[in-house]
């Protein structure tokens, strides 16, 4: 977990996972070996994921963990006796949490797609090449990020040398005169 995670989302997730797990443990009449296998696999993945730094914990390593609450929710709803009031309340709570989860996932997917393909997306290499192609040949680019770290091939030097070939000069400061 990091500082950007909402406490509300964590609480809802814990409640969702807890209710689903409780119902599966108490009511599940299917293949207990299969659920045991999934549980052991999830514990191993959770342990492994706790050892990854955030910057190296890619989504393909989380897929099995993301699948756990979905499987448990489906199994939970399948074995509830909806003639009992308590089970109806549990089903309603699970349905509300599933709806909230769907809405949250759609919101984050929309933000992701907007940041990748929308008008306010991050600058990509293709965008940089397109911009550099509009600069006159032999011009000077001022790049404040070029602080001597890469004297030969900074970002713009590299793109110009190997992609656009416009013979641009990149400096940290704009020359006077």
Strand content: under 5%
User: Using only CA atoms, what is the Rg?
Assistant: 26 Å
Distance between the termini: 53 Å
Q: Please give the order of strands in the largest beta sheet.
A: 1-2
Averaging pLDDT over every residue, what do you get?
75
The oligomerization state is single chain
Count of helical regions: 6
Report the major sheet. Answer: 2 strands, parallel
Shape: elongated
Give the uncertain stretches in residue-range form.
none
Instruction: Give helix % range.
Output: 55-70%
Structural class: mainly alpha
Extended strand count: 2
Along the chain, the helix and strand elements come as HHHHHEHE
Can you put this structure into words, describing what you see?
- By secondary structure, the chain is mainly alpha-helical.
- 60% of the residues lie in helices and 3% in strands.
- The chain has helices at residues 7-27, 32-50, 63-78, 85-117, 125-132, 155-164; strands spanning 140-142, 169-171.
- It has a two-stranded parallel ribbon with strand order 1-2.
- Helix 6 links the parallel strand 1 and strand 2 (169-171).
- The N and C termini lie far apart (53 Å).
- The model has no long low-confidence stretch (mean pLDDT 75).
List keywords for this structure.
177 residues; two-stranded parallel ribbon; 2 strands; 60% helix
């Amino acid at each position: 977990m990091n500082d950007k995670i909402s406490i509300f989302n964590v609480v809802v997730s814990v409640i969702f996972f807890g209710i689903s797990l409780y119902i599966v443990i108490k009511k599940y009449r299917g293949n207990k070996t299969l659920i045991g296998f999934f549980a052991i696999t999830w514990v191993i993945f959770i342990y492994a994921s706790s050892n990854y730094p955030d910057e190296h914990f890619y989504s393909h390593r989380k897929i099995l963990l993301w699948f756990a609450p979905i499987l448990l929710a489906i199994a939970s709803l399948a074995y509830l006796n909806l003639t009992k009031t308590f089970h109806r309340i549990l089903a309603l709570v699970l349905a509300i949490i599933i709806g909230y989860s769907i809405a949250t996932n759609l919101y984050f997917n929309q933000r992701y797609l907007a940041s990748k393909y929308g008008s306010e997306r991050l600058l990509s290499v293709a965008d940089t090449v397109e911009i550099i192609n509009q600069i006159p040949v032999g011009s000077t680019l001022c790049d404040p990020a070029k602080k001597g770290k890469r004297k030969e091939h900074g970002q713009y030097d590299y793109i110009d040398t190997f992609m656009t070939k416009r013979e641009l000069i990149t400096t940290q400061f704009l020359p006077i005169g």
